[in-house]
């Protein structure tokens, strides 16, 4: 009888933990990130405040929008990786090699995107003074 009560308590604790985990997970996903368009508009305004030269401001605006696009690509790649990983995980016959191939393909795409991201950041930095960069990166 005592072991049955203990199992019942353990089950109740597991149900409570699962309920808390689900509510936390759902609340975290309900907070929406700003759209790329909204981020672009914010970036444009930020550049207009920080950079007085119209030609450099235009270049920085374009570069910032490129970063926003790259971030979108990285975010989509992560979502694809999660979906593909879940699909592989659902298959009982999936081998470690299949998971390694998925990881390798993602890593290749991620490395290329991050290289582009760095290049754009360095190009942006080259277009600004130290003071302007500080204002832009606040």
Q: What distinguishing features does this structure have?
A:
0% strand, 5 helices, 138 residues, 86% helix, mainly alpha, single chain, elongated
Q: Please estimate the helix content.
A: over 70%
Distance between the termini: 63 Å
Apparent shape: elongated
H/E order of the elements? Answer: HHHHH
Residue share in β-strands: under 5%
> Helix/strand-derived class?
mainly alpha
Question: What is the oligomeric state here?
Answer: single chain
Low-confidence stretches: 1-5, 10-19, 23-30
Tell me the count of domains: 2
Count of DSSP helices?
A: 5
What does the largest sheet look like?
Answer: none
Number of strands: 0
C-alpha Rg, in Å? 23 Å
Residue-averaged pLDDT, rounded? 80
Provide a descriptive summary of the structure in words.
It contains 5 helices and no strands. It has helices at residues 2-30, 36-50, 54-90, 96-126, 130-136. Residues 1-5, 10-19 and 23-30 have low confidence and may be disordered. The radius of gyration is 23 Å and the shape is elongated. It is an all-alpha fold. The protein starts with a helix and ends with a helix.
């Amino acid at each position: 009888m005592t072991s049955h009560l203990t199992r019942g308590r353990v089950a109740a604790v597991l149900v409570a933990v699962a309920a808390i985990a689900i509510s936390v997970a759902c609340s975290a996903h309900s907070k929406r990130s700003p759209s790329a368009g909204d981020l672009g508009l914010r970036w444009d305004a930020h550049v207009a405040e920080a950079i007085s030269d119209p030609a450099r401001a235009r270049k920085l605006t374009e570069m910032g929008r490129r970063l926003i696009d790259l971030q979108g690509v990285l975010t989509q790649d992560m979502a694809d990786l999660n979906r593909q990983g879940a699909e592989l995980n659902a298959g009982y016959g999936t081998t470690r090699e299949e998971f390694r191939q998925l990881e390798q393909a993602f890593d290749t795409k991620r490395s290329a995107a991050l290289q582009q991201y760095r290049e754009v950041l360095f190009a942006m930095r080259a277009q600004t003074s130290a003071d302007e960069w500080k204002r832009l990166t606040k």
